[in-house]
Design the sequence.
């Protein structure tokens, strides 16, 4: 009993002490806040801070002698002892993925807050540290410090995604209290970032581990990883995604980790059957096997999924074993989320999913479904998220997919992704029944028709994405009912009409993209309430009018694309209010005026694109205020004046494009400050002086284009001393001279494109080119080189695709080997002094373009053309004009079928045109002018269906003009048979050449009359518009791809379009303006008859020459209709009559020759005619200016005189017609009654008898009297 009472007393005493202590603690609690952290620990944290690089100043509170470290950012202390227990310093706010941020800009801004530097071992003084989180920082591949393994009280360690590198220290195995270990990282595009392991045994010591994340840690050397994991009995979550696990251990049947609820071994490609041990983990709730490459199940595991009854989340993306109805039927009915995308599952197997009634999320994308979608999908009425994208189901309709869901009483769908599915037909009106829908993506389908008005019922919709379809009609007004909409993407459709004003109600909208449609009208002011809008793209529509000032109210806007519309008037000043704007693209519009000063207020702007407008004025100094600018594009405008020095303040600028303006003055030295510049394009302006020496500072420069300016002066090797990254330099068509300080200069760059034509590089061949072995585009034309081509030249440039050395004085034989050139290369060696034959080796190169014209080549073409027999060639343009080549043209053209243009003019070829040239079915231009070719024009030329230019003049061809030349060559625009020995009549078949613009048959022996069917010439009569000669795109542009380089367009000067025309009495060469010329020349023949008035219907004809024939009759009065006529020569004929007064109305006529005919009368009066030389009218009976002989009588007004001529002609014809009509009427007035009536005949003949009797009586009396 005493013992019992003592026990009660002891308990009472204990409770009394406990109560007193608790009461004292409560009384003193108000002073706890005054207790500071441990001084030693505070110093330890300061040392830790000192080792970090804190650019974001996140640890600004970690200062002060009296400061309590427990109040510092990221520090948590124990309440009573004030020991530091936790350090929370994750970067990016703990959100490591870019997708966690609203915009990429916000991610970049947050990235600046990440720590760098080193981790100080001072953390070891934090004896009670239990929680350390420094994830999502950037420690730049330093190794994880081994001292962390001495923080023995740690329960939580998260250093994931912080860009550590090297080996993970095994000392971490000393953290026996550790429950959470996060060492995972992101996979970088270049390689695995980061950390690796060679031994995992230390992990077995961490018996308390519940959570392990080693995603993307390289574990390729860890064979026993599964054995180690099996020693962690408390493990709940295991993340080994992308860790290069070497072996899946398919022979292991089971594991002992019965508490594991999450297993992620995704992105480890095993390429085996699925191991049975996975099915032994019956506690699994979540299983991620994405991209594991499990192709099948072991026979003993065929129903393994039936063991995983707790499984709720299953992802098996890109695993073949799921393509089985038996496997699908074995899935747990508790599944909430299922991803079986890209597993090769066919549509009949979908019926196996019937029992998954709890399913909320289903991803079927990338499987091979037929056009039939099982209606059993409709049984999944609880489904919230459905993804059926990329399933390649042609001609499937929207209803085929959703009919089953529409049978549900209340469809639960919130996310519906059906991109790249081949959906056709219209959007059904039933779509409005999916009232819970939040995200609808139907990208890249074939949906047509209009958006139904029922779309407005989807009041929960956040994302509406319908790009790359064929949806037409106006955007429905009901779309304004989607008040929660954040993304509206309608680009690449066929929408028409105006922007509906109801869009202004979408106050939650972040992104609006309706680009590449056919919207018209103006941008409505109603958009201004969209205060959250970040992205607005209305590019490539038909929008007109000014850009409204209300655009300045979209104050959150970061990207504004309005390019390729028809906006007019000036640049809106209100855009300067968009302080968050990063991209502004208004290019390809019709904006005019100058840039406003307010543009300098766009402090966040990174890209300013205003190219292809009508902007004028000078560049503003305020552009220098755009401190964030990386790209400035003002090409194809009318900007003038000089470039301001303030441009040098744009230190982040990477691309500057000012080409095709009217900028003047020198290139400013301030550009040397643009140290980030990669692309500088100042081409096609009026810049003067030389290149500034400061350009040598631009060490990041990759592209320098200053061609087509007025630059002059010297350029030295110092200009290029630091341009080590330069890959493209175009400076042709300037008057620059290269002066080198050393003879054996080796440039610091390796260029791919070098165009410095028109520079002064000579007289010696530039030896420094030998170092540029990456060149694929070289132009040193017109560069004053007068030297022999060095032997190293042809073997130095294995990637060359374009070579232009024309217009120099390069001498010697063509001995180079072009076979090293890339396929479809272009070579221009014209206008030099190369001599000797064209080498057969040139045939070995598969060239696109070869121009060796205007040299001194001689000999035959046999070796060049004929070795290619049996091998098709790609050559499209061959120009050998103006050389001394001779002999027959070889008859071996069968393998040159790609030729578009062939020019042999001004050589010494003889013989006949070979028959095989007729096999060049793509040939568009063929010129052999001024050779010694003879024989008849071969019928094989009639097979040239594509021919547009046929120039056979100045040879010795005989015979007639082939009749079929007008029936088959209907594309001909130029036909010249001038100065040959052709005879016979001009065939009417030539009138089928409806597109002919130049027809020259002069100086032959043609006879007969001029055809009257010239009105069929639709170009000359302006029934159709003119077009450029040789219209095939590859006739003016060479498209070549050289290894890894992108396609480039190389402009080729096709001199095959230079045509010799005799106009105004002189010979002229036409090239660039050839397509504007229209000409008829039949002079110097034996033509007779009148000039047909049908010729006068050629109102678009500019030059006509009919001189030196035997034409008779009058000049047609209709000649006044030929309003385009500039030159008319009808001299040396037998024309008579007056010159029509209507000719005085031809205001374009500058050359007229009517001499040596039989013309009479006064020369009509006009400024053009009276300014002509009198020789143009000699040899006639004409009078009046410009002749000295004056007309005898006062000249009547032109109209009266013309009328008199016409009336005189009319009276002559009238008299003849009157006589004929009078005779006919009088004759039949007498004869008709006599024929019809016997009485009339009797009376008539009685009358004649009486009359005859009286005449005889009178005559007798007269004779006898």
Sequence:
């Amino acid at each position: 009993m005493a013992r019992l009472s003592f026990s009660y007393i002891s308990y009472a005493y204990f409770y009394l002490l406990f109560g007193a202590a608790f009461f004292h603690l409560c009384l003193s609690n108000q002073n706890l806040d005054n207790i500071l952290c441990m001084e030693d620990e505070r110093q330890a944290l300061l040392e830790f801070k000192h080792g970090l690089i804190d650019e974001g100043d996140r640890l600004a509170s970690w200062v002060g002698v009296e400061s309590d470290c427990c109040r510092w950012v990221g520090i948590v202390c124990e309440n009573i002892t004030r020991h530091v227990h936790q350090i929370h310093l994750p970067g990016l706010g703990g959100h490591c993925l870019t997708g966690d941020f609203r915009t990429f800009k916000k991610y970049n801004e947050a990235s600046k807050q990440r720590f760098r530097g080193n981790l100080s071992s001072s953390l070891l003084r934090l004896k009670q540290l239990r929680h350390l989180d420094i994830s999502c920082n950037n420690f730049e591949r330093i190794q994880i410090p081994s001292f962390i393994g001495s923080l023995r009280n740690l329960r939580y360690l998260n250093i994931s995604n912080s860009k550590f590198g090297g080996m993970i220290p095994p000392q971490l195995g000393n953290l026996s209290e550790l429950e959470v270990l996060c060492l995972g990282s992101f996979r970088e595009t270049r390689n695995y970032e980061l950390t690796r392991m060679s031994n995992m045994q230390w992990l077995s010591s961490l018996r308390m581990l519940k959570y392990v994340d080693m995603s993307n840690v390289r574990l390729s050397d860890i064979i026993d990883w599964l054995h180690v994991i099996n020693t962690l009995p408390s493990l709940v979550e295991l993340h080994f995604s992308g860790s290069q696990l070497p072996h899946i251990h398919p022979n292991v049947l089971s594991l002992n980790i019965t508490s594991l609820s999450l297993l992620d071994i995704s992105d480890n490609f095993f390429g085996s059957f699925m191991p049975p041990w996975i099915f032994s983990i019956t506690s699994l709730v979540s299983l991620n096997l994405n991209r594991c490459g499990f192709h099948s199940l072991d026979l003993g595991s065929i129903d393994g999924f039936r063991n995983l009854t707790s499984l709720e989340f299953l992802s098996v993306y890109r695993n073949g074993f799921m393509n089985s109805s038996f496997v699908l039927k074995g899935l747990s009915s508790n599944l909430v989320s299922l991803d079986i995308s890209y597993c090769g599952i066919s549509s009949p197997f979908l019926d196996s999913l019937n029992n998954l009634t709890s399913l909320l999320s289903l991803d079927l994308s990338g499987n091979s479904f037929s056009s039939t979608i099982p209606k059993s999908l409709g049984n999944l009425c609880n489904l919230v998220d459905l993804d059926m994208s990329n399933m390649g189901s042609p001609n499937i309709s929207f209803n085929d997919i959703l009919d089953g869901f529409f049978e549900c009483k209340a469809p639960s769908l919130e996310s519906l992704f059906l991109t790249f599915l081949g959906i056709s037909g219209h959007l059904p009106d039933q779509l409005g029944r999916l009232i819970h829908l939040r995200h609808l993506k139907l990208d890249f389908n074939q949906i047509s028709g209009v958006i139904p008005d029922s779309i407005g019922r989807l009041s929960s919709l956040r994302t509406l994405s319908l790009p790359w379809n064929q949806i037409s009609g106006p955007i429905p007004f009901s779309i304004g009912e989607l008040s929660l909409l954040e993304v509206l993407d309608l680009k690449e459709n066929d929408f028409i009409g105006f922007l509906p004003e109801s869009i202004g109600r979408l106050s939650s909208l972040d992104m609006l993209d309706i680009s590449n449609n056919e919207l018209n009208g103006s941008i409505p002011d109603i958009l201004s309430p969209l205060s959250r809008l970040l992205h607005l793209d209305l590019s490539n529509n038909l929008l007109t009018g000014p850009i409204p000032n209300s655009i300045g109210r979209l104050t959150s806007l970061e990207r504004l694309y309005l390019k390729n519309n028809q906006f007019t008037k000036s640049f809106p000043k209100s855009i300067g209010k968009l302080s968050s704007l990063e991209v502004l693209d208004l290019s390809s519009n019709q904006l005019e005026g100058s840039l406003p000063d307010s543009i300098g207020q766009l402090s966040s702007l990174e890209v300013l694109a205003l190219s292809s407008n009508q902007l004028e004025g000078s560049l503003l100094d305020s552009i220098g205020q755009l401190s964030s600018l990386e790209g400035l594009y003002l090409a194809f405008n009318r900007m003038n004046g000089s470039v301001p020095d303030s441009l040098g303040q744009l230190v982040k600028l990477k691309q500057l494009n000012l080409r095709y303006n009217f900028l003047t003055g020198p290139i400013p030295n301030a550009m040397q400050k643009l140290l980030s510049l990669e692309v500088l394009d100042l081409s096609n302006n009026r810049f003067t002086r030389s290149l500034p020496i400061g350009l040598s500072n631009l060490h990041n420069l990759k592209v320098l284009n200053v061609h087509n300016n007025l630059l002059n002066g010297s350029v030295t090797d110092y200009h290029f001393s630091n341009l080590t990254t330069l890959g493209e330099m175009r400076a042709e068509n300037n008057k620059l001279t290269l002066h080198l300080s050393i003879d054996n200069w080796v440039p610091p760059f390796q260029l791919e494109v070098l165009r410095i034509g028109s520079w002064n590089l000579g007289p010696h061949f530039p030896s420094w080119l030998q170092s540029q072995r990456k060149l694929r585009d070289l132009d040193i034309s017109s560069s004053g080189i007068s030297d022999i081509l060095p032997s190293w030249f042809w073997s130095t440039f294995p990637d060359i695709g374009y070579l232009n050395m024309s217009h120099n004085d390069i001498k010697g034989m063509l001995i180079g080997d072009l076979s090293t050139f890339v396929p479809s290369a272009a070579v221009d060696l014209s206008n030099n002094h190369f001599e000797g034959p064209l080498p057969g080796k040139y045939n070995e190169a598969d060239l696109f373009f070869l121009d060796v014209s205007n040299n001194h080549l001689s000999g035959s073409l046999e070796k060049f053309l004929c070795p290619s027999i049996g091998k098709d060639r790609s050559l499209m343009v061959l120009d050998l004009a103006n050389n001394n080549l001779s002999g027959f043209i070889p008859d071996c053209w069968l393998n040159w079928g790609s030729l578009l243009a062939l020019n042999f003019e001004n050589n010494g070829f003889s013989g006949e045109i070979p028959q095989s040239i007729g096999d060049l079915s793509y040939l568009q231009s063929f010129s052999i002018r001024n050779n010694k070719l003879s024989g008849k024009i071969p019928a094989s030329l009639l097979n040239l269906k594509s021919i547009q230019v046929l120039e056979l003049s100045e040879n010795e061809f005989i015979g007639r003009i082939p009749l079929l030349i007008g029936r088959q060559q209907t594309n001909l625009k130029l036909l010249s048979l001038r100065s040959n020995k052709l005879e016979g009549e001009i065939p009417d078949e030539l009138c089928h050449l409806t597109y002919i613009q130049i027809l020259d048959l002069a100086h032959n022996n043609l006879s007969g009359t001029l055809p009257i069917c010239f009105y069929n010439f639709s170009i000359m009569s302006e029934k159709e518009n003119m077009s450029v000669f040789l219209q095939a795109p590859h006739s003016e542009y060479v498209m070549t791809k050289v290894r890894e380089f992108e396609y480039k367009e190389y402009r080729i000067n096709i001199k095959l379009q230079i045509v010799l025309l005799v106009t105004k009495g002189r010979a002229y060469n036409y090239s660039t303006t050839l397509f504007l010329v229209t000409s008829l020349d039949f002079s110097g023949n034996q033509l007779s008859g009148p000039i047909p008035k049908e010729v006068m219907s050629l109102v678009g004809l500019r030059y006509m020459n009919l001189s030196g024939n035997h034409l008779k009759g009058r000049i047609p009065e209709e000649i006044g209709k030929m309003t385009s006529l500039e030159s008319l020569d009808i001299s040396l004929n037998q024309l008579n009559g007056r010159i029509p007064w209507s000719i005085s109305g031809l205001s374009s006529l500058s050359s007229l020759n009517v001499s040596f005919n039989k013309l009479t009368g006064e020369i009509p009066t006009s400024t053009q005619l009276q300014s002509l030389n009198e020789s143009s009218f000699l040899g006639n009976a004409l009078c009046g200016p410009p002749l000295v002989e004056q007309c005898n009588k006062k000249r009547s007004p032109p109209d009266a005189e013309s009328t008199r001529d016409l009336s005189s002609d009319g009276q002559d014809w009238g008299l003849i017609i009157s006589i004929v009509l009078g005779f006919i009427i009088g004759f039949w007035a007498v004869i008709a009654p006599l024929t019809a009536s016997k009485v009339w005949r009797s009376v008539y003949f009685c009358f004649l008898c009486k009359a005859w009797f009286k005449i005889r009586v009178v005559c007798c009396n007269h004779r006898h009297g």
Notes: The two ends are 214 Å apart (CA to CA).
